């Protein structure tokens, strides 16, 4: 009788365990699967979205497409960028497409044209676009005879919106993007134009910092589409066909480039946000505001022209109120007047709200990056001023990858070593009463800077 009772108790215990397993196992599996796509199970089975999944969901609603098979290699200096780019160009077999705000008429541009002309002679299709205002506004513009000399070497080159008298109508809606696509297989994008000061610096600001990246994967196709639409606009030529797109393979024949050393290489989630007037006019602003609003832990940002809209200021303040650690790095030096004064005014206001402001001393940071919660980041051409957010054609890669974000966070920490932390005492020592007034006045003009 005792054995029968014991057996019955064992059977009941087994039944209870199996029942619990059947109930809990799907919840565990559900949680594990959902963590893979960016959200987790909270109290009372509440779904808690992470910042990276939120931004993907938000951008998809705006029509941004994400792919999962990308590599992203960061190029953190001008030397790295141009060395890598020239190696890739030299191995091109089919097409080279370049879209830049400006090709400064200097030594690095001459070197680029030399590499491009050699490929054109081999039969590679070489197409280039530059912006008329970008060319006219730099201190070493290409002249008509320079452009004709480039064309004679087999390179097709067109100017977007040439500057014409009375010029005022030509200031807005410029092409500020920086894109190179080689064979439809690999692409470069970021904040660097073609200029030797990315390597040599300038007398006024010293070393000129900026950031670029190389992308391999399906988002190369997105960048190619952006370029070819622009090419039709400037040249009237419809260029199409499978040979301009990645297909199912990368360009394995292009070797000896800097490697993406992340374990996630080849499996990174990337989306391209492309601002075009009248089409996706608010996409860059939408990304930044949502990225800041989604943050739960940390925000690190570097941007050269920190003029800020009201909505961006509000987003930063709200993030600080939520307990998010917000760190922003700006440069003491700049290449233009008045705009940095506005940026310093905004930085001081945010410092008083609880933001950590770092002022970089050795040179000028033209870098445009943001890292959120260590989960996602962006590298691209867009500044946080009215030109980038309201008028110009811009393009940023949004990278949903913890490893790439970690690399940029490490870069940020390195730059802090050459910066000082802004405090109220430091503010009064560093900025004279006249400079503080100039900053206040400049912030009134922020919609036009």
TrEMBL record:
Pfam families: PLDc_2 (PF13091). Gene3D superfamilies: Endonuclease Chain A. InterPro entries: PLD-like_dom, PLipase_D/transphosphatidylase. It comes from the Bacteria. GO terms for molecular function: phosphatidyltransferase activity. Residues 171-198, 361-388 form the PLD phosphodiesterase domain. SUPFAM superfamilies: Phospholipase D/nuclease. One of its GO terms (biological process) is cardiolipin biosynthetic process. PANTHER family: CARDIOLIPIN SYNTHASE, PHOSPHOLIPASE D. This is PLD phosphodiesterase domain-containing protein. It comes from Prevotella histicola F0411.
């Amino acid at each position: 009788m005792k054995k029968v009772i014991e057996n019955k108790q064992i059977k009941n215990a087994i039944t209870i365990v199996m029942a619990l397993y059947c109930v809990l196992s799907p919840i565990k599996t559900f949680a594990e699967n959902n963590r893979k796509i960016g959200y987790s199970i909270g109290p009372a089975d509440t779904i808690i979205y992470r910042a990276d999944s939120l931004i993907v969901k938000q951008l998809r609603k705006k029509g941004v497409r994400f792919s999962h098979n990308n590599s992203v290699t960061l190029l953190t200096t001008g030397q790295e960028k141009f060395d890598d780019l020239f190696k890739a160009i030299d191995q091109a077999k089919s097409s080279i497409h370049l879209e830049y705000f400006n090709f400064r008429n200097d030594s690095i541009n001459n070197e680029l044209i030399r590499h491009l002309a050699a490929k054109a002679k081999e039969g590679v299709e070489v197409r280039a676009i530059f912006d008329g205002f970008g060319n006219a506004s730099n201190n070493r513009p290409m002249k008509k005879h320079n452009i004709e000399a480039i064309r004679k070497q087999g390179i097709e080159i067109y100017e977007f919106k040439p500057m014409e008298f009375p010029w005022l109508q030509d200031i807005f809606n410029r092409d500020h993007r920086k894109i190179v696509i080689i064979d439809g297989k690999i692409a470069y994008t970021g904040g660097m134009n073609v200029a030797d000061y990315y390597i040599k610096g300038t007398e006024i600001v010293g070393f000129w910092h900026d950031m670029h990246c190389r992308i391999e994967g399906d988002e190369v196709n997105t960048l190619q589409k952006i370029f070819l639409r622009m090419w039709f606009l400037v040249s009237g030529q419809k260029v199409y066909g499978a040979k301009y797109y990645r297909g199912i393979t990368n360009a394995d024949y292009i070797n000896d480039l800097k490697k993406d050393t992340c374990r996630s290489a080849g499996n990174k989630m990337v989306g391209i946000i492309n601002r075009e007037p009248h089409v996706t006019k608010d996409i860059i602003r939408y990304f930044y505001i949502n990225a800041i609003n989604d943050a739960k832990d940390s925000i690190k940002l570097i941007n050269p022209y920190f003029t800020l809209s009201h909505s961006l200021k509000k987003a930063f303040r709200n993030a600080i109120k939520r307990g998010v650690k917000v760190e922003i790095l700006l440069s003491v030096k700049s290449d233009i007047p008045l705009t940095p004064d506005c940026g310093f005014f905004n930085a001081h206001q945010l410092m008083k709200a609880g933001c950590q402001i770092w002022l970089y001393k050795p040179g000028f940071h033209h870098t445009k990056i943001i890292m959120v919660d260590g989960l996602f980041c962006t590298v691209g051409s867009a500044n946080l001023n009215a030109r980038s957010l309201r008028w110009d054609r811009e393009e940023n890669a949004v990278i949903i990858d913890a490893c790439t974000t970690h690399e940029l966070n490490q870069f940020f920490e390195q730059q802090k070593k050459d910066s000082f932390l802004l405090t109220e005492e430091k503010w009064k020592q560093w900025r004279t009463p006249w400079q503080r007034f100039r900053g206040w006045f400049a912030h009134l003009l922020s919609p036009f800077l």
